[in-house]
Specification:
Layout lengths: L10 H11 L5 H5 L19 H14 L4 H15 L3 E2 L26 H7 L10 E2 L5 E2 L5 H9 L5 E2 L1
Parallel strand pairs: 1-2, 3-4
């Protein structure tokens, strides 16, 4: 049997074809050291290094949604104002404020609770947002508390970032 239905290449194949059709031999490519885009903040040997993905990230990073920390922070502040701020549940006491943690991890960090206590606070059957949580991980602002975060990382302690 022969089908009249034509198969279309998937989006990755289309992007690879588009990438292969571009010429990498121009003067501008030589001045840039070739056409290979270095993905910002990427780690060596981790993640996809294929040409189609690298080119997709270049297009995304430079044209679609360029990095803008101030825009991101403004959006987060607006969301918090509109939807509420997550806070520590009064039943989940910790010897430290998760948003103002000490310079070094305190003894017993991170605080943990029995799972039944956590489930009493927010049942897995309830999909509505709860703004009072059981939170034991410190939250650091990378712009002002990078040294603190590094202290926790050096001691293999988990933390969050704003």
């Amino acid at each position: 049997m022969h089908s009249n239905k034509t198969t279309r290449p998937d989006p990755i194949q289309r992007f690879e074809q588009k990438l292969q059709s571009k010429s990498n031999h121009g003067l501008l490519a030589k001045l840039r050291g070739g056409s290979k885009y270095i993905i910002p903040e990427s780690m060596r040997n981790i993640g996809c290094r294929k040409d189609w993905y690298t080119e997709l990230r270049r297009e995304y990073d430079t044209h679609i949604y360029p990095k803008d920390d101030e825009r991101s922070l403004k959006w987060v502040a607006e969301q918090r104002q509109r939807q509420g701020i997550y806070t520590q549940s009064p039943l989940a006491s910790t010897p430290y404020d998760i948003f103002h943690c000490p310079t070094y991890p305190p003894e017993g960090y991170p605080i943990q609770w029995p799972v039944l206590d956590v489930l009493k606070n927010w049942s897995p059957d309830d999909p509505t947002p709860h703004y009072q949580l059981y939170q034991g991980l410190c939250v650091f602002d990378y712009r002002t508390e990078l040294d603190k975060a590094n202290n926790y990382r050096e001691r293999s302690c988990p933390f969050g970032s704003e």
